[in-house]
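Cross-posted from the bioinformatics board.
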Amino acid sequence: MSTSGHTAAIEHLYIDHHPWLQGWLRRRLGCAADAADLAQDAFLRLLATPRQFNTAFEARGYLRCMANGLCIDLWRRREVEQAWLQTLACHPEAVEPSPEQRALVVETLLEIGAMLGRLSQKAAAAFLMAQVDGLPYREIAAQLGVSDRMVKKYIAQAMLQCVLIEAGHPG
Amino acid sequence: MASVIPGASAGRRCAEPDYATLEAAASWYATLHSDEAGAADRQAWQAWLEQSEAHARAWSYIETVSQRFDPLRTGGHQAALAGVKAARRGSAGRRQVLRGLAGVFGLGMAGWMGWRHSALPETLLAWGADYRTATGEQREITLADGSRVWLNTDSALRVDYQAGARRLTLAAGEILVETGQDASQRPFYVDTRFGRMQALGTRFSVRHDARRTRLDVFASAVEINNAAGKVQRVEAGESAEFTADGIAALGQAERAREAWRRGVVVADNIPLGALIEDLARYQRGHLGVAPEVAELSVVGVYPATDTERALAMLENTLPIRVKRRTSWWVTLEAR
């Protein structure tokens, strides 16, 4: 399909299904603003990856499936943000982060969470203590109840997981 | 390492570091950041870096990864750790649980042992809810008429107060209700997909999962009206469970169904298997019991949201040991 043909097809899909999708999302999320954002997102994705549907039924099935994935993403983001903010709020000296800062942090946390996915809880904790606060190994070791040598091993393990992903290595 | 491939293929890809090189780079990183790293280490690292283009490229990845942490530095590592934990719960945990199920264990064990399925269905149910709690979270709410409701771990509740009735819908999980005095004497209902409960008294708990709804009454009485139209009154101190088809009396109301509000799981001479099924609801991942120890009797009070401690307490008093395959897969076995 030519680019213009593709865009025209999306336009039709948008007119036929956008109100329906937004309504579906509103019922699921219970929030009109979130529903509007995600419905927009779904069509942007459709624009990025061309697809052809034979029936309206098929199109709605696909859109529903995609919107479902977006809901799960949104919900996960909120959960991650909440966890970060809650802990942040425990520090008396903490400053309320701006919305932009929050968005950036959540993005980073999700990325890093995925990178550290295969590591033990302790290795992940050691790596974050070193990377985020620059704590010396001695202090990390004391906090985690392991030896300095173990901390060094954790850091190397964690960094390896990260660079493997960064370099697009199959691991 | 000498290459056996002639010049033609030696292009851009040659500079891409292999696994061993990335591993060496990560190890250099760990060495340089250790407390006793000195000038000799830095010199050796410099020499390694200049040895090949692949080494330099591997190190550039290390630097890119380090920069990724920049946005987290303002919040400190504790907040970052909490966030990363939440992010990992969603990705790695779910995958590992699924892999675990497909692998080592037969489905025979999974049948009654309360392994936690993926968080997905719970999430889907919870979206329509007004109040929800995450795994391991508890929450207290006060409604317009002064009624108080406690939500246990992993629960989703919808509240619908109208002119003619006060109606709660429990989509998933567990609630404990203390109804308030309503000025206009509206009836108070709790609905699940298996039926309706009408509060005739003041204090009761409802626990709902995919298979059944359980009701424990602690004061006055509650009337069950299930989807098939069967009606049964449950008095204070009694309990019952129902599905869409039937209602069954369960005998005495369980103290445990009230005690969770205080953050504890009470075992009043119950099988270990039942206690673990209850504890498993407060954490993600698999928590199971081997059949040979599942029938051991347990008495005691255990912290609901500190599973590690609860398991340590059990390990101290029973002939069992806790086996951790991963942090997401924990089973209790005979010692």
